[in-house]
């Protein structure tokens, strides 16, 4: 069983790495598209802030580790379920990255856990899935969009008589801080999800008591993996987030990043594993709507929403198939 535990942990860190390059665009695409920061500097900053954010709390990790599926301790079959879930999430991440769709790594992981658990007849904690995942999945981008819309209106009114060139220059500088905040909040959310999966693996294998704190090495490994992934960049998704939904300006980019960071930090406080992709995309739509509704490219937005809706069932189906294969060889 020890070998299987090690394999699952390695695959979990691989998922964390794909999460980093898949979602790095969330924090830095707007800063790069407005030329507030050069791409390499933006990616490096995001990687550092991902690590810092990952170290502040484990509430989201505990939700992922304990609130989605129920697996008995000392159960080799439970380890196969977790491994299949990770395979499903990684495959979906790579597929959506290839097509430049900013889908949710969070929901790919949740979908993978649910799909693999159902395929293996393990118990799914449906109340936790709906209360902690599905409802926040719907509400968080809406709140991000509304908050970004209101913040953008305040900025438009406050700077209506200012010189546009100087205003844009000031907001490019301010974007360094809003991008750092977005990367920090991304670390508080997404790195913790891998912590939760590794903690679940250790609980299933009997190496961690269900009521014990998450070990420091798990926190550091998860933070390091997502930082490495972030540093490798996610240029395909960055183009979608920064230009194809709405052509952002420095003030609108600042408003979108600030609103998204507030939503992500607030949800982390309650242990809700929301999608950073959904929240920031909703915020970009919100600032775009202040110009006029036609300023938002709703066709692109529709494709993104379609990917959102498909993520949990698609990753679940892939994970179920992966469980079928892995079950034959590992049980």
At a glance:
The chain has 331 residues and is mainly alpha-helical. It has helices at residues 2-33, 39-54, 59-66, 76-98, 105-119, 126-158, 164-204, 216-232, 235-244, 250-269, 276-289, 298-330; strands at 69-70, 123-124.
Detailed description of the structure:
The chain is mostly helical. Helix content is 79%, strand content 1%. It contains 12 helices and 2 strands. Strands 1-2 form a two-stranded antiparallel ribbon. α1 (2-33) packs across α2 (39-54), α1 packs parallel to α4 (76-98) and α4 (76-98) packs across α5 (105-119). The protein starts with a helix and ends with a helix. The mean pLDDT is 83.
- As a whole number of angstroms, the C-alpha radius of gyration is 19 Å
Q: What string, H for helix and E for strand, traces the elements in order? A: HHHEHHEHHHHHHH
With strands numbered from the N-terminus, the spatial order across the biggest sheet is: 1-2
Secondary-structure-based class equals mainly alpha
Instruction: Identify the overall geometry.
Output: elongated
Report how far the terminal alpha carbons are from each other: 10 Å
**Sheet with most strands:** 2 strands, antiparallel
Helix content: over 70%
Give the helix tally. Answer: 12
Number of strands: 2
